[in-house]
Specification:
The protein has 478 residues and is of the alpha/beta class. 17% of the residues lie in helices and 36% in strands. The strands form seven sheets. Strands 6, 8, 9, 11, 12, 14, 15, 21, 24, 27, 29, 31 and 35 form a 13-stranded parallel β-sheet that branches. β4 and β5 form a beta hairpin.
Length: 478
């Protein structure tokens, strides 16, 4: 073998070795690049997650300030706050329509994310609650109960307050803010709408209203000139001329002595002897027996609308021949009235608005110091089961009771308005395996000032409640 042959062989080996070294170096560089990229990707993902958590912490800080009643002081952009190795800040805008917008920004390792919440302010207390029980007696064992299954499950659309506990069972649906001075058991709630315990809200200030002096019509006094007459509404009763604002009542009708004999005071029945009887079982305003206020659209007498009617006695919405009563007006004037009863109210027939957008009635019961069973609202028809719907705002200084709703009476009752008790809402709607469904659709017209009713009791010194309407992520660099 010649020297030149050995030289060529060595050169080939060196070339192969060089190529191998270059390939290995390239592979090493590639692997290093991949590993570096993966590390950077992981670090970026971690930073993005942390920045979102930090933004959420900033949002919680902002919401806490707003719910504490500090909206005005918090409007604008906040300073940066250090948190968990990063920073957050938030911006609050008062929209001027009882809503505000909060945007919170979180930054970690140079990466920013943002979340946005729209909050809505609701008045608190008796005007903002579908169901309110102040538990003025201080009973530590008081439970506000909801239950039922399937189509019989209770359905409450609006806020709830119990001065005791709240017990939720079965398929009951509570769509609103639930507050209780005690505990809340059962139920499921959307984020931001979790129940609030340890709450304490004031009851309606009945004494401050001084209804015995502050009213428009004293029904008992007006009935001093009543005559005893028959009516197609049933039996004979004390009645007033159509021009009297109190003509919409009949006193102690003879066909209902089984009801009136069980009460302590005189009994007034909300029914109009100057209107025709409609005995239809269809539950809507068109099929109800009319109750017309005096002085409206050509009706005789002075105006009966926007007035407080005071009754020192009991008030009944109950007629064995009628399913429903409709607060009716042939013209366009709204029907607005408040009925204040120093005694009890008994509702066993439907009471309906002619026009739900403009009309409104309130029933208020107050205690009589000489009558232990007073200041209550009883509802339900244990004999005929005809009560299905009440369009009204109802305030009982004492309690709400049911008249054996589920055993032989109404299988479902709907309230379009609200139910407020100074003490307790005590409605037992279970009989064996049967549950009487309660639906309450909160009417918010009183708190948004689209409806004003005369002489309603107030709850002073109560702060508004802010609730979350929406919560979503937005771009941190709009």
């Amino acid at each position: 073998m010649t020297e030149n042959s050995h030289s060529r062989r060595r050169g080939s080996v060196l070339l192969v070795a060089l190529i191998a070294v270059m390939v290995i170096a390239a592979l090493a560089t590639s692997m290093l690049t991949v590993n570096t990229g993966r590390t950077q990707e992981r670090d970026t993902s971690i930073a993005a997650t942390k920045s979102l958590y930090i933004a959420e912490s900033g949002m919680s800080d902002a919401i806490e300030r707003i719910t504490a009643g500090n909206l005005a002081a918090s409007v604008g952009a906040s300073a940066e706050v250090g948190f968990s190795g990063g920073v957050y800040r938030f911006e609050i805008v008062d929209n001027g329509d009882d809503t505000c917008q909060v945007t919170a920004f979180g930054t970690y390792a140079g990466i920013s994310r943002a979340t946005r919440v729209v909050m809505e302010r609701e008045g608190e207390g008796i005007y903002a609650s579908a169901l309110f029980a102040g538990n003025s007696s201080g009973d530590p064992a008081y439970d506000m109960k909801f239950g039922g299954s399937g189509t019989s499950a209770d359905d409450i659309n609006g806020n709830i307050y119990s001065g005791g506990n709240v017990l939720i069972d079965g398929d009951a649906s509570l769509d609103g803010l639930v507050r209780a001075s005690g505990t809340v058991s059962g139920g499921s709630f959307a984020p931001g709408m979790e129940p609030k315990t340890g709450a304490s809200l004031p009851v309606p200030d009945i004494a401050a209203m001084n209804y015995e002096k502050n009213h428009d019509y004293d029904v008992v006094s007006l009935f001093s000139s009543a005559t005893y007459a028959s009516s197609s509404l049933g039996g004979k009763a004390w009645q007033l001329p159509e021009e009297s604002p109190a003509h919409i009542f009949r006193k102690n009708p003879s066909d209902r002595t089984s009801n009136t004999s069980a009460t302590t005071k005189d009994d007034y029945f909300l029914e109009d002897p100057y209107e025709s009887v409609n005995s239809s079982s269809v539950v809507d305003a068109a099929h109800g027996t009319h109750i017309t206020l005096s002085g409206q659209d050509g009706n005789p007498g002075s105006s009966g609308s926007d007035r407080v009617y005071f009754i020192d006695g009991n008030l009944w919405i109950h007629n064995p021949n009628i399913f429903s009563f409709t607060m009716y007006n042939a013209g366009s004037e709204p029907i607005r009235a408040t009925f204040v009863v120093k005694g009890n109210i008994y509702i066993s027939d439907n009471i309906l608005y002619q026009g739900t957008g403009k009309d409104g009635i309130a029933f208020v019961t107050i205690k009589d110091a000489d009558v232990p069973d007073s200041g209550n609202i009883y509802f339900g028809d244990p004999t005929f089961g005809t009560l299905e719907r009440m369009d009204a705002f109802m305030y009982a200084e004492n309690n709400f009771y049911d008249n054996n709703l589920s055993a032989v009476g109404s299988a479902k009752v709907t309230v379009n308005g609200n139910m407020t008790a100074g003490n307790q809402v005590r409605i037992n709607r279970d009989a064996g395996k049967v549950h009487s469904k309660l639906t309450v659709n909160f009417d918010g017209r009183l708190i948004d000032d689209t409806l004003v009713l005369p002489g309603l009791p107030a709850a002073s010194g109560v702060d508004p409640v802010w609730r979350v309407r929406s919560w979503n992520e937005v771009s941190a660099n709009p």
